[in-house]
Amino acid sequence: GLAAALSGGDVLMVDCSQRAIEMSQRTFEHHGIKGNWCVDDAWKFLANLNEKFDLIVIDPPALVTDKSHFNIAKGAYMSLIEKGFSHLTEKGILVFASCSSFVKRKHLLQWGEKSFHKLGIQAHVIYQSGHEKDHPVPDFLPSMRYLECLAWQLI
After folding, report:
1. How far is Cα 106 from Cα 129, in angstroms, rounded to an integer?
2. DSSP secondary structure of 27-76
3. Which residues have CB under 8 Å from 26's CB, separation 6+?
4. In this structure, how many other beta carbons lie within 10 angstroms of the beta carbon of residue 84?
5. Which of 31, 69, 78, 120 has the fewest CB atoms within 10 Å around its CB?
6. CB neighbour class for 71 (10 Å; exposed up to 12, middle 13-18, buried from 19)
7. Paired sense of beta strands 36-39 and 12-15, if any
8. Does the pLDDT of residue 8 top 90, yes or no?
């Protein structure tokens, strides 16, 4: 949100943590920029939303902290991705991040594809990333590979 606002964008940040919102507000004040905030649960917020956005960034907390949680979390991730797609403007961009080591990029790709097929829209991946050089993952500890990020654009 900060990067978008610094670039002149009108931003709305939603988080279930009042403390996180307050920290974000102080950061915006420090930089002399404006933003909009809402303390709310992302699923509830997106379910009640009647607006469309050019860019939506969804970065949930780790939903799969144990392999046995995968199937339950899969539904939660897919729900967020689908709701994100449904609130995009024409040619809008959805950025989705995961910080669960059991969720791989292939899963996000599959869930995104299922979501936009279900919604009857078309999208393509415009960005993929994982760990950057400042966050190395040793070959002998692949379980440390837990950051994934994808961006889709509606076409």
Report:
1. 12
2. HHHHHT---EEEES-HHHHHHH----EEEEEE-PPPS-SSGGGHHHHHHH
3. none
4. 23
5. 120
6. exposed
7. parallel
8. yes
Q: What is the pLDDT of residues 27-85, one digit of tens each?
A: 999 999 999 999 999 889 999 999 999 999 999 988 888 889 899 889 999 999 999 99
Residues 75, 78: Cα–Cα separation, whole Å: 5
Q: Which residue has the tokens 């760990």?
A: 131
% of the chain beyond a pLDDT of 90: 78
AA identity, residue 126: I
SS3 82: helix
Assigned token pair, 48? 């009640």
